[in-house]
Amino acid sequence: MRAWRRAGSAAGFTLIELLIAIAIASLVATAILQIFQGSMTQVSQATSLEDAQSSARIGVDEMVTEFRWIGAYWNGISGAGNTITAATPSSVTFMADIDADTVTGTTETTLTTASAATTLTVSGNASAFDTYSTASFNDYAYVANGSTREVRQVTAVAGSVITLASALTNTYPAGSIVRSVEKVTYTFSSSAKTLTRTVGGAAADTVLDNVTALTFSYFDSSGTALAATPPDPSLIKEIQISMTAQGTGGNRRTMSSRVRMRN
User: Fold this and answer.
1) What are phi and psi of 183, to 5 degrees?
2) I want to staple 83 with a disulfide (CB 3.0 to 4.6 A). Which of 71, 79, 146, 147 is the partner?
3) What angle do CA 235, 206, 227 make, to 5 degrees?
4) What is the rounded CA–CA span in Å between residue 38 and residue 48?
5) What are the pLDDT digits (tens) for 40-66?
6) How far is 261 from 69, CA to CA, in rounded Å?
7) Burial of 50 (0-12, 13-18, 19+ CB in 10 A)
8) Residue 1: what pLDDT?
9) How large a percentage of the chain has pLDDT more than 90?
10) Is 33 exposed, middle or buried (CB count within 10 Å of its CB: 0-12, 13-18, 19+)?
11) Which tens digits make up the pLDDT trace of 68-107?
12) What is the arithmetic mean of pLDDT over 163-168?
C-alpha cells in the first residue's frame, strides 16, 4: 500500500521557528557584543590609568632626582647666593651642579696654571659651560683647592679658557678642581598642561605633557610648612611635589613625593 503524503509538505523550518531562531541568535550576539565592549572598555581604562601613572611617575622621579642635587657645589661656597632663588606653588628655580659634570664631561677638570684673576685655563675644552645673551643666566664656575672654594659667574668660554664676571678672591694652584654650576627652573603651566625644565637662558624643554595639576609645597629645617610662596627661599630645606597626570583615555593619576635636599 502506498504511503499517503499531504500535497505541498516538505522537510524544513516553519516561519515561526525561523523567527524564534533569529531572535535567540540576536540575543546571544547582543550579549557577546556587550561582554566584548565591556572588556574593551576595561582594557582601555586600564591602559589609560597605567599611562597616567607612568607619566606621573616619570615626572616626579626626574624632579626628585634633581631636587636632591639642589645646592651641590654651591651651598655655603664663597661668592654664592641663595641655593633656591625663586619658589612658588607652580615653579621653583635653584642652583646646582645637576649634571655632576667635570667641565669636560669625562675626567676631573683642573686648572693648568695658578689663578687669582678673572680667567681660568683648564685641562681640556670647557664645553660644559653655557653662556647666554642675558648674562644673569650664565653658568657659574666652581673652583676648589681643599677647603678653599669659590664660585664666580662665567661671562665667556673659548676652548680651555673661562672668563669670569669678577676676579677670584684666592689664588688657586695648578691642579685645583673646576666644575660648572647651573641655574635650573621647573615650571607647571595649567593652561598648556605641561611641566617644563629650563637650564640657564636656554629654551624651556617639555618634561611632560597632559599634566592637569602640580603643586610645590615648601618646608623648613624642622619640617614646618612655609608660605605657599616663601618670602625667604633660603629657609627651604624640603620640597613636596604633588602632580596629577592624565592618560590617553582621560583617566588621571596623582603621585606625591617629599624631597629633602642633601646639600
Assistant:
1) -95, 125
2) 71
3) 20
4) 15
5) 666 565 555 576 677 788 889 999 999
6) 7
7) middle
8) 45
9) 48
10) exposed
11) 989 989 988 999 999 999 999 999 999 998 865 555 555 5
12) 93
Contact indicator for 52, 253 with CB cutoff of 8 Å: yes
- SS3 annotation, 193-257: CEEEEEECCCCCEEEECCEEEEEEEEECCCCCECCCCCCCHHHCCEEEEEEEEECCCCCEEEEEE
Cell of residue 110, nine digits: 683642573
Strand partners, 215: 242
Q: Is the pLDDT reported for residue 201 higher than 50?
A: yes
pTM: 0.79
Strand partners, 115: 172
What would the grid cell of residue 41 be? 572598555
d(CA 164, CA 172): 14
Contact present, 134 and 201 (Cβ < 8 Å): yes
Q: Tell me the longest C-alpha to C-alpha distance in the chain.
A: 133
174: left (phi over 0), alpha (psi -120 to 50) or beta: beta
What letter represents residue 10's amino acid? A
The three-point CA angle 9-13-18 to 5° equals 145
Quickly tell me which residue has 626626574 as its cell. Answer: 62
C-alpha cell at 183: 641655574
Nine-digit cell at 69? 642635587
**What's the grid cell of residue 28?**
546571544
Q: Which of 67, 68, 84, 71 is nearest to 232 (CA)?
A: 84
